[in-house]
Model the fold of this input.
Amino acid sequence: MQDLNIRIDKWLWMVRLFKTRSMATDACNAGKVKLNGTNVKPSKSVKSEECYHVRIGQLEKVVQVIDTPKSRVGAPLVSQYYTDLTPQEEYDRIKQLHAKFEYRDHGIGRPTKRDRRQIDYLKDYFGMGEEED
Done:
């Protein structure tokens, strides 16, 4: 395996798995980034052909490293740097979680302050609140 000589937190940010580098670092520290079932520290060097399991919100994404960019890349170029090995069933599961969570009948108006608090509580409870992308 070739050592690409870049930190995992920086690589995750460069290939747009996280919005900010600090979010990637926090995910590593929280145990949301794993290599072979073990948690990865943010300072670990990325090697080509390694498969990482990255939890982003409710999504458990599996990515295989191909290469490392020189700097953060645009979304269309991301496929040059990693292969997404996440099974389609995982994406389908996430889609179903978000399907009708906030459905409201037509004509009943906007949610009240109490309704909004209850919705926010449920989102936090089920882990569907505003998290990193």
About this structure: Strands lie at 3-7, 33-35, 38-39, 45-47, 51-56, 59-65, 82-84. The chain has a mean pLDDT of 87. The longest strand covers residues 59-65. Helices lie at 8-14, 21-29, 88-98, 113-125.
